[in-house]
Design brief:
Length: 197
């Protein structure tokens, strides 16, 4: 089996030592190429390259929900085609790991890697439904690029909060529960002031 491990070095709960252990464990079971993301959107580019190459059987995303989302959107860049796309596996390394938890994976990266290796040995796979969010043709949002999502998509208040969090992360802030909470409060107060202003 040929596999690509996409590693987000900024994943909040994964250390360099943990990454090395995971790489060693996965490489012992398959022909593995491990690539560390270097820029925003790199996981997307790696997923796309894996899908287009036709020589990768499995893509493993080591990171949080954002890394998983980027990889999924890269894999599906040319559209969904289960016969030509590599399988996807997730090893949680972010702060919340909602998708990995929804799949029933342990939140510990080492334990999740063990579960992944067990599933590969037993040839167990799982089909996951996806959604596609896109702009509405003929409206001002039609220029918004379509985006696949694995477990949820938001609009309105929650999308604005995520937008605020992403702006803070671009400025070097770490993704923490406190960061999300601060942005929820700021978004709420900002919307309240606009309604009363």
């Amino acid at each position: 089996m040929r596999a690509l491990l996409v590693v987000n070095p900024a994943a909040t709960t994964t250390s360099a030592r943990t990454r090395d252990v995971l790489i060693h464990a996965l490489a012992s079971e398959m022909k593995l190429e491990a690539v560390t993301t270097e820029y925003r959107g790199h996981a997307h580019d790696l997923g796309r390259r894996a899908a287009e190459s036709g020589n990768v059987d499995l893509v493993v995303a080591l990171g949080g929900d954002g890394t998983v989302n980027e990889v999924v959107n890269g894999l599906l860049h040319g559209g969904p085609d289960p016969d030509r796309l590599p399988d996807l596996a997730v090893v949680p390394g972010g702060s919340t790991n909602v998708f990995a938890r929804a799949l029933g994976l342990p939140n510990d990266a080492v334990e999740a890697t063990g579960a992944l290796l067990d599933a590969l040995r037993e040839e167990r796979t799982r089909t996951v439904s996806l959604g596609l969010a896109s702009g509405t043709p003929g409206t001002e949002d039609e220029s918004v690029p379509s985006r696949w999502f694995t477990f949820c998509a938001g609009l309105g208040f929650d999308a604005s909060v995520i937008g605020r969090v992403e702006q803070q992360r671009e400025r070097g802030k770490r993704s923490t529960h406190a960061l999300y909470l601060r942005q929820v409060v700021r978004q709420f107060l900002g919307e309240t002031n606009r309604r009363h202003g």
